[in-house]
Write a structure and sequence with these properties.
Elements (H helix, E strand, L loop, with lengths): L2 H6 L1 H4 L5 H10 L1 E5 L5 H10 L4 E5 L24 H12 L4 E5 L5 H7 L5 E4 L4 H14 L3 E7 L2 E7 L9 H4 L11 H4 L3 H18 L10 E6 L4 E6 L14
Parallel strand pairs: 1-2, 1-4, 2-3, 4-5
Antiparallel strand pairs: 5-6, 6-7, 7-8
Helix pairs in contact: 4-5, 4-10
C-alpha cells in the first residue's frame, strides 16, 4: 500500500476490524453494481470512497432531470449523458485510485455471465423482478454473493443472498418466479430521496462485510425500513428445500 493510500484510508486502517490487511482486501476486490439510480448511486460512492479497487458499473439509461432528486452520483451538467459514464466521472473524481469498467447495456443471461467474471460481490440496484431472477440464477451458478434492495414511496427493504453459505435462501425462495408480481416504479409511485440514500449506504456496508469486514451479514434476514415513522423490522428467511431454482445447487 502506498503512502497516499495509507493516508486516504487511514480512518479505516485505524479500525481494529479492518486495519491494513482488511483495507488491502478491499483494494483487491471487484464489485459489480447493477443500476446507477437511487440505490446504486450512494452504494457506488461509498464503495469507491472505501477503496474497493475494481468497480464494474452497469446501466443502459441516460441521466434525466427527474433523476437528480435522489440519484446523487449524477449532476445537472451531465443530463443526457449515459448513467455509467456520468457515474464513472464522479467516482474517479472522488477516488482516482480505483479501476472502473462501464457497460451501457441491458442485462441478459449472456451479458451477466460475462460481467460476473472475476467479481467478488454484486450490488442489486435494479427496479424489476425479471432482472433480479436473472441475477439470482447467474450468481448461483458462480457462487457469488449479492446484496439486494428496493425502495418505493417511504418504504424500503434490503437483504443478502450468499450461495457460498449452505443455508442461505436464494431470491426465488423469497419471491418465486411464478406468478410474476405486478411491477411498480418510483415514476408512478414516487420515492423519498433520503430513504434510497440510507438503503444504498447499507448495501455498501453489507458488500464490505462480504469482502472481509467483520460482522454478521443480512443472509437469511430481510430488513425493512419505514421512513415515515423510522421503524425497522426484520423477517427471517429460510432456504426452501423444494425451490426449483436453488435446490439443484444444494
Amino acid at each position: 500500500m502506498s503512502d497516499e493510500q495509507l493516508l486516504r484510508y487511514s480512518r479505516h486502517i485505524l479500525l481494529p476490524d479492518i486495519g491494513i490487511e482488511g483495507q488491502t482486501q478491499f483494494l483487491r476486490s471487484h464489485v459489480l453494481i447493477l443500476g446507477l439510480g437511487g440505490l446504486g448511486s450512494p452504494a457506488a460512492m461509498y464503495l469507491a470512497s472505501s477503496g474497493v479497487g475494481h468497480l464494474t458499473l452497469v446501466d443502459f439509461d441516460h441521466v434525466e432531470l427527474t433523476n437528480l432528486q435522489r440519484q446523487i452520483v449524477h449532476t445537472t451538467a451531465r443530463i443526457g449523458h449515459s448513467k455509467v459514464d456520468s457515474a464513472k466521472a464522479q467516482l474517479l473524481a472522488l477516488n482516482p485510485d480505483i479501476t472502473i469498467d462501464v457497460h451501457a447495456e441491458r442485462a441478459t443471461p449472456q451479458t451477466l455471465n460475462r460481467w460476473l467474471e472475476g467479481v467478488d460481490v454484486v450490488i442489486d440496484a435494479v427496479d424489476n423482478f425479471a432482472t433480479r431472477h436473472m441475477l439470482n440464477r447467474a450468481c448461483l451458478a458462480r457462487a457469488i454473493p449479492w446484496v439486494s434492495a428496493g425502495a418505493i414511496g417511504m418504504d424500503a427493504q434490503i437483504t443478502v443472498f450468499d450461495p457460498r453459505t449452505q443455508d442461505s435462501p436464494c431470491y426465488a425462495c423469497l419471491f418465486p418466479p411464478e406468478p410474476a408480481p405486478q411491477e411498480v416504479s418510483c415514476a408512478s409511485m414516487g420515492v423519498l430521496a433520503p430513504l434510497v440514500g440510507v438503503i444504498g449506504a447499507l448495501q455498501a456496508l453489507e458488500a464490505l462485510k462480504l469482502m472481509g469486514l467483520q460482522g454478521q451479514t443480512l443472509v437469511g434476514r430481510l430488513l425493512m425500513l419505514s421512513a415515515k415513522d423510522l421503524r425497522l423490522s426484520e423477517m427471517r428467511m429460510k432456504r426452501q428445500a423444494n425451490c426449483a431454482v436453488c435446490s439443484p445447487f444444494a
